[in-house]
Write a structure and sequence with these properties.
Elements: E1 6-12, E2 18-24, E3 50-56, E4 61-66, H1 68-75, E5 94-97, E6 102-106, E7 109-113, E8 117-121, H2 126-138, H3 146-160, H4 164-200, H5 204-235, H6 238-243, H7 246-250, H8 259-328, H9 342-367
Antiparallel strand pairs: 1-2, 3-4, 3-8, 5-6, 6-7, 7-8
Helix pairs in contact: 2-4, 4-5, 4-8, 5-8, 8-9
Subcellular location: Membrane
Region (Disordered): 26-47
Keywords: Ion transport, Magnesium, Membrane, Transmembrane, Transmembrane helix, Transport
Length: 371
């Protein structure tokens, strides 16, 4: 698609009048599949290409692969901004404003947004596919050359609705918040079922599932917190928010307010805080359930100890009776042996003695509040 180098630019004078000038625009963007280059000896350089999808404000899409240098030339960003695709920034959340683009890194959504297009890295990820569907609904495809209509649409869109870059940013927040809500609902359903089973019966399998759930909740809380911190960071600095107004820079508008972006970010900050509060509430419920299970386990352990103590007492009383019987079983002449029926009285006496000893020790333990 060709982009003319001369476009009609609308901007306002100091008195508010709209002026229509024909100015020389920057050179057309580097083609999305450009690159490759050659070395000094004429051999072609091998550059590592990355998959991406280009989505324009007119709804046109293009899936291709290109190297980092091509992307850097096309959107005018330094090489360090492409680190969002690396492992170091894979779990972070950042929204960075540059002169001609916005670097978006929200969960699995990694994109470079300009005033008239968005480059989506790793376009086959589920969250990115959801964002693409959202953008297609928001920007239906039109067979209109983008360069000709760009300035008029930018000025009209700037006055009537959010600029293109903010609509993309809003869609990205919507997809991420929907993903968070879906994960919270899934984890909450699973957690309630497992915790109910754990209360009824403590098993190794249930404990393992609960531990896995706690890890998932912890990871999700961390992800939500990172998005929340990034939104708060932008809201705290009007200068950073002003850097995100790409359309305003293109049409050379002198407005300096950031009210539209401020309202957009505050709306999603409230939604993210609500999600975080749900996660903390559910995590607290898991902790409370674990405490309840621990109390039940301690109660069972205490009852087992009491039962063991009673068995030990019974063994002591029986041992005392055995001692008496053993003494009488020795081969020592005693006149009592010649008495008729004395054996029955002896057995009965030993039995009564064992019961009395058991009751005395049991009563003393109760008086000392050992039971």
């Amino acid at each position: 698609m060709s982009n003319p180098s001369y476009l009609s630019i609308f901007h306002q004078n100091k008195d508010g009048a709209v002026k229509n000038d024909t100015e020389t625009m920057p050179s057309a963007p580097i083609p999305i599949n450009a690159g490759g280059g050659r070395t000094g000896n004429g051999k072609k350089k091998t550059r590592r290409a990355m998959p991406l999808m280009r989505f324009s404000r007119n709804g046109n899409t293009e899936v291709t692969e290109c190297d980092k240098s091509t992307i850097m030339k096309r959107v005018s960003i330094p090489a360090r901004d492409l680190r969002i695709r690396g492992p170091l920034f894979s779990s972070s959340s950042n929204i960075l404003g540059r002169e001609k683009s916005i670097i978006v890194n929200l969960e699995n959504i990694k994109a470079i947004v300009t005033a008239n297009e968005v480059l989506l890295l790793d376009p086959l990820r589920p969250q990115v596919l959801s964002l693409i569907d959202q953008l297609k609904k928001q920007f239906p495809q039109r067979n209109v050359p983008e360069g000709i209509q760009y300035s008029q649409e930018a000025e009209e869109g700037f006055q009537s609705e959010l600029p293109f870059e903010f609509q993309v940013l809003e869609s990205a927040f919507e997809v991420v918040c929907s993903f968070f809500d879906m994960r919270v609902t899934s984890l909450e359903t699973e957690a309630l079922h497992v915790l109910a089973e754990l209360i009824e019966k403590v098993t190794t399998e249930n404990l393992s599932i609960v531990r896995s759930l706690k890890s998932n909740f912890t990871c999700l809380i961390a992800s939500v917190q990172k998005v929340k911190d990034e939104i708060e960071h932008l809201l705290d600095d009007d200068k950073d928010m002003a850097e995100l107004y790409l359309t305003r820079k293109v049409i050379q508008s002198q407005q300096e307010d950031v009210e539209d972006l401020d309202m957009l970010l505050e709306a999603y900050l409230i939604q993210v805080e609500g999600t975080r509060n749900k996660l903390h509430t559910m995590r607290k419920y898991i902790d409370d359930t674990e405490d309840y299970v621990k109390i039940k386990q301690k109660d069972k352990r205490n009852r087992l100890l009491v039962f063991k103590l009673m068995i030990n007492r019974a063994s002591f009383e029986i041992s005392a009776g055995t001692l008496v019987v053993s003494l009488f079983g020795m081969n020592i002449p005693i006149p009592l042996y010649s008495t008729n029926g004395v054996f029955g009285y002896l057995v009965l006496g030993v039995f009564v003695m064992c019961i009395v000893l058991f009751m005395v020790t049991f009563g003393k333990a109760g008086w000392k509040k050992l039971l």
